[in-house]
Amino acid sequence: AHFGKNVAIRGDYMVVGSPWHDALASKSGAAYVFHRGDDVWVEQQKLLPSVAEIDSNFGVAVSIDDDTIVVGAEDNDFGDDSGAAYVFTRTGTLWSEQQRLILDSGEVRDYFGSSVSVFGDTLVVGARRQDDAAFDAGSAYVYTRSSNEWTLAQSLNAGPGGPHSDIFGASVAIHGDVLVVGAPWDDDTETNA
Q1: SS3 58
Q2: pLDDT tens digit sequence for 82-133
Q3: Fewest Cβ atoms closer than 10 Å to its Cβ: which of 44, 81, 106, 108?
Q4: What backbone torsions phi and psi does residue 75 show, to the nearest 5 degrees?
Q5: Residue 39 CB: number of other CB atoms within 10 A?
Q6: Rounded distance between C-alpha atoms, residue 40 and residue 139, angstroms
Q7: How far apart (Å, rounded) are the C-alpha atoms in residues 172 and 141?
Q8: Secondary structure (H, E, C), 118-144
Q9: Is 141 helix (H, G, I), strand (E, B) or coil?
């Protein structure tokens, strides 16, 4: 089930991805929320996607900040592995899906949702093989939340420096007003350095 493929923690809450879990279909995936009370971690809830397909791999990426959890998946809206990101929010002890994010211009193997990071009302979603800039160059998408609705604010890519296969967006992290995007195949200095 690949339980623990990705983990995230904030305060007394932890989320654990299990992207190969057969919860709703073969490898549809799941994510588990744990809460710490009296120095003991207890499973609070099992999160499942609203769209469950074979090989969705929901839980391939996870992030948590306060009462918001984001879970990445390899959904197939626009063909194999075009991807999605699911936002969950907590009311009391119950986590509920707030919104499912997909790219309007999604394509096969964009891997949108292969990395996610949330901080407050800002969310960044990596799409490591998105082809806007060049073949497999990758992109990262910044969303902001207003009135419980997430809206795309900006799309980022490595720009003209990397002609192809940078895999920009393979990892993302946000905290405060700083956003970092990994591009492990960027070869400005040497091939796939």
Answers
A1: strand
A2: 889 999 999 999 999 999 999 887 667 778 899 999 999 999 999 876 766 5
A3: 108
A4: -65, 165
A5: 5
A6: 39
A7: 10
A8: EECCEEEEEECCCCCCCCCCCEEEEEE
A9: strand
